[in-house]
Amino acid sequence: MPSSPFCDLKGVRAVVTGAARGLGLGIAVALSGWGARIAVLDRDAREVDAACRELGAEATVPGFATDVTDEQAVERAMDLAAADLGGLDLVVNNAGVLTARPVVEMELAEWRRILDVNITGTFLISRKAARLMIAGKTEGSIVSISSIAGKVGDPLLAHYSASKFAIIGFTQALARELGKFGITVNAVCPGVIETQMIRDLSLGSATPVEHMLDAQVIKRPQTPREIAMAIALLHVNRAMTGQAINVDGGSVFH
């Protein structure tokens, strides 16, 4: 990969959640390619093991099968990851779920599931990361994956947008709380990443990717590597905190 100052992550100790597949795995691969050591967290133990093999022994510590909505599981996994890595410099909240449904047809269980994984999971991982960084006197970074759906609400995605707007608000508040410890807190807002989660959506006659690309100036999906580059920049540039950076092909200009 081309070298650049903000992609030099040699020695960075990182946790990536939801990293066994899709965007999370792509982020982990890119960060490890730039020198970071990665602890992979995801729900499925077999997929976690496969992701660790793909990253390679030098880039990763043993992965951890973890439900980010389970407080005790998060505490345990983050403690183990920090111990194996020798501390934490960067935590990426990527774990998330997505469905499409009109509000009038949505069951409470579906609403709760989206918010539980997307925002409660972000809270639990971030809280533990902050505690570990403060205890270790580490001026680290917490970066959460929000979405352009966290900037503009769309039909069929009210529950998802609510969770992604919440991530941005949580990011801003946490950045103000942790600044005195030298810990930065930011979010990245992708537009459309061509993953299985996106392909499985039903958004009318057009395919989900085609539907989402209609709003973009640059008519192609973003790549996991492009999202990882934004994460790397937010980690290296210590003047950036409380931000929600769009990496969306020019879909949203705020």
Note the run of SSEs as H and E: EHEHEHEHEHEHHHE
- CATH C-level: Alpha Beta
Contiguous uncertain segments of 5+ residues = none
Sheet with the most strands, sense and barrel status: 7 strands, parallel
What is the assigned CATH homologous superfamily? NAD(P)-binding Rossmann-like Domain
Assign the CATH topology: Rossmann fold
Shape: globular
CATH architecture level-2 label: 3-Layer(aba) Sandwich
Percentage of residues in DSSP E strands:
5-15%
Indicate the mean pLDDT. Answer: 91
Helix content: 40-55%
Q: Calculate the terminal CA-CA distance, rounded to whole Å.
A: 30 Å
What is the spatial order of strands in the main beta sheet? 3-2-1-4-5-6-7
Question: What is the number of helical segments per DSSP (H or I, 4+ residues)?
Answer: 8
Structural class determined from secondary elements: alpha/beta
Query: What's the number of extended β-strand segments?
Result: 7
Q: Provide the domain count.
A: 1
Give Rg in angstroms: 17 Å
Give the topology.
Layout: E1 13-17, H1 22-33, E2 37-42, H2 45-55, E3 64-65, H3 71-85, E4 90-93, H4 108-135, E5 141-145, H5 158-178, E6 184-190, H6 196-199, H7 208-213, H8 224-236, E7 244-247
Parallel strand pairs: 1-2, 1-4, 2-3, 4-5, 5-6, 6-7
Give a description of the structure.
This protein has eight helices and seven strands, in the order βαβαβαβαβαβαααβ. By secondary structure, the protein is of the alpha/beta class. It has a single domain, classed as Rossmann fold (3-Layer(aba) Sandwich), CATH 3.40.50.720. It has a seven-stranded parallel beta sheet with strand order 3-2-1-4-5-6-7, sandwiched between helices. Helix 3 (71-85) packs parallel to helix 4. The model has no long low-confidence stretch (mean pLDDT 91).
